[in-house]
Amino acid sequence: MTMPDFLLHALLAGLALALVAGPLGSFVVWRRMAYFGDTLSHAALFGVAIGLLLDISPTLAVTVGCLLLALLLVTLQQRQPLASDTLLGILAHSTLSLGLVTLSFMPEVRIDLMSYLFGDLLAVSREDLYWIVAGSALVLLILVPLWRPLLAITVHEELARVEGLPVAAIRLALMLLIALVIAVAMKIVGVLLITSLLIIPAAAAQRHARTPEQMALGASLLGLLAVCGGLSLSWFQDTPAGPSIVVCAAALFLLSFLLRRRAV
């Protein structure tokens, strides 16, 4: 039996994202950047609205918007007196609300808001697939040479600075990579579930990994399993694809607690 094109596109897109979400999600967990990811994902809906308003590709608008917001966050964190979590909370809810308000001013535009909020993986087109695979490959290519510097600033930022590493530039690069992955992932799991796909597999792999590389690889493998399991659940039980993937990832996370923790 031949796999339908739309299901093949969904599977390939999900697997491409899972591969890159593993190592990147590991840094999100290590550096406790979950709220940063939430802020960018909420801002993605504003990018969709701007894209529709300017009649450009929503995917391109979301990508540019997330990258610009990441730059804005870095700038504001350096110059404002507010705590980072307060600033992130303000920007997250403000951009999400701005997106919804902007969409309300375009009654002639008909969009499936639920697909943006919760994903519509089974609707991934060939063009979307090219965009997702290209974005994931780009992130991986950039992440490989940055792996050791990122580990250095994650373990001890001050020591990395003393050793001459450009800490600020490396931190900014990580935020931009997260922004790019979130923009790419929006089509798959939706605005409200993107961060969970970054965090849950990495958190499950952390419990049994001895090295950072093992955790990154384990997170990618668990992400691949979650994508395959979620798509199977969606196909056979007619459940929404994005939330089904997250549910499978959560099940794998719970399973990791039933297994004996690997001795270090």
TrEMBL record:
Membrane topology, as annotated: Multi-pass membrane protein
Keywords for the protein's UniProt record, in alphabetical order: Cell membrane, Ion transport, Membrane, Transmembrane, Transmembrane helix, Transport, Zinc, Zinc transport
UniProt keyword annotation of Ion transport present: yes
Family that this chain belongs to: Belongs to the ABC-3 integral membrane protein family.
Keyword Transit peptide part of the UniProt annotation: no
Pfam families the UniProt entry points to: ABC-3
InterPro entries named among the record's database cross-references: ABC_BtuC-like (IPR037294), ABC_TroCD (IPR001626)
Bilayer-crossing regions: 45-74, 86-109, 129-147, 159-182, 188-205, 217-235, 241-259
Domain of life: Bacteria
Role noted for this protein: Involved in the high-affinity zinc uptake transport system.
Compartments where located: Cell membrane
Protein name: High-affinity zinc uptake system membrane protein ZnuB
Annotated gene: znuB
